[in-house]
Prior knowledge:
CATH class of the largest domain: Alpha Beta
Structural class: alpha/beta
CATH topology of the largest domain: Rossmann fold
Number of domains: 3
Protein name: YcjX family protein
CATH architecture of the largest domain: 3-Layer(aba) Sandwich
Shape: globular
Pfam family, one: DUF463
Distance between the termini: 39 Å
Strand content: 15-25%
Radius of gyration: 24 Å
Largest sheet: 7 strands, mixed
InterPro entries: YcjX-like (IPR007413)
Helix content: 25-40%
Number of strands: 11
Amino acid sequence: MKDGILTGLGRAGRRLTGGFEPTLRLGVTGLSRAGKTVFITSLVANLLERGRMPGMRSVTDGAIKAVWLQPQPSDTLPRFDYETNLETMTGPAPDWPDSTRAVSELRLSFRVEPGGLLAGVRGPKTLHLDIVDYPGEWLLDLSLLEKEFDDWSADALERASRRSEATAFREALEGADPEAPFDIRQATALAEGWTQYLHAAKAAGYSDCSPGRFLLPGPMEGSPALTFAPLPPGEAPKGSLRAEFRRRYEAYKREIVRPFFRDHFARIDRQIVLVDALGAIHAGPQAVEDLRRAMADVLGAFRPGRNAFLTEILRGKRVEKILFAATKADHLHHTQHGRLTRIMEALVTDAKARADYAGAQTAAIAMASLRATTEDQIEVNGEMANVVRGILRDGRRAAFSPGELPEDPRQLLAQGRQGQEDWLGGDYEVMDILPQPLTLAPGEGPPHIRLDRAAEFLIGDKL
């Protein structure tokens, strides 16, 4: 007991005398194919070697004296595999690293020394940046906490009714009797059918694919909490399929959704939400409308007043800054980056307003964590056209122009809200490109577009 008291007093004394080293927790999430792993890897590489980070004031004024990696503070979370991912992106045969499949963490430490008038007042300090990587699909599960099984089923089936990817599941559901006694083979078949539909919808560019753990089950694959599916409303006699699916749905919320928010999300100070807006535009008006709704759901996680459970676990704590980043800006000529930013702002208008109301500072940006293209102009029908050049997955080099984005983003959003299946007056394409081989000079991280501005918004005030 005495040793414990002395240890506590020693820790308090170090805090009072300046020994306390502050920690900032940065959450990184996004929906499918948004580039979370690439973002974290490039961010860390460019903070370790800061030659390409002029948009950070602490870099240009020399306040950052040193940056280094440290073991992550959690003994139970896996470490984000920065070194392997960087080698994949910048090695002899560059490729994109594997996507996020679970929560991981990485600690980056800064030695900062203030300049100017503060130099003689404040000494150097150490700031720890804990980067927490987690799948955006899990964040979308927050909305389930406010819904009963019948409410979630009605929403999920209504969305699925408009998507061809759900045809097989709908046919299987027509042959099921939810009020009949529970049968494990039928339950498993329906759950597998719903999971297959979610994977197909995600591949088709849709964003709201819940429950999120069905896509990334990890060690819980096959458990009862991940073996249910939406059912049409009706009676739920004891022992019936509907009664059991209701019970499993509640277990999913209790055993999977709530622990994630309690153990990980509640400790985040700053947040970046990465969005593949170009991928959604390529997929069509309904994918864009789905993305807009998903962004509103994502922001629900940052408004604890709406949800009693979040209010309880956050106890007044709020995420201070949220950045919405439209990724893959290198697929566009820089003359269209402003349009992409405005589309990003329009996509999250409703969600952003709610976050602002809750006290969080928000911003939107178009960026590329790793620039994989170069810009050029080519002659098309006697006129010069802006293009980007990249390396296709089959090894060919190609010049590419995905199409002109509209000046007014409401043109895109309106077509989705009106139920259009295809774009009116234009098509938007994307290309599957690989990172280009790099030769990095000493002191330089991988090339990017506006990664330094993103970092300045997220952590610049703490440096």
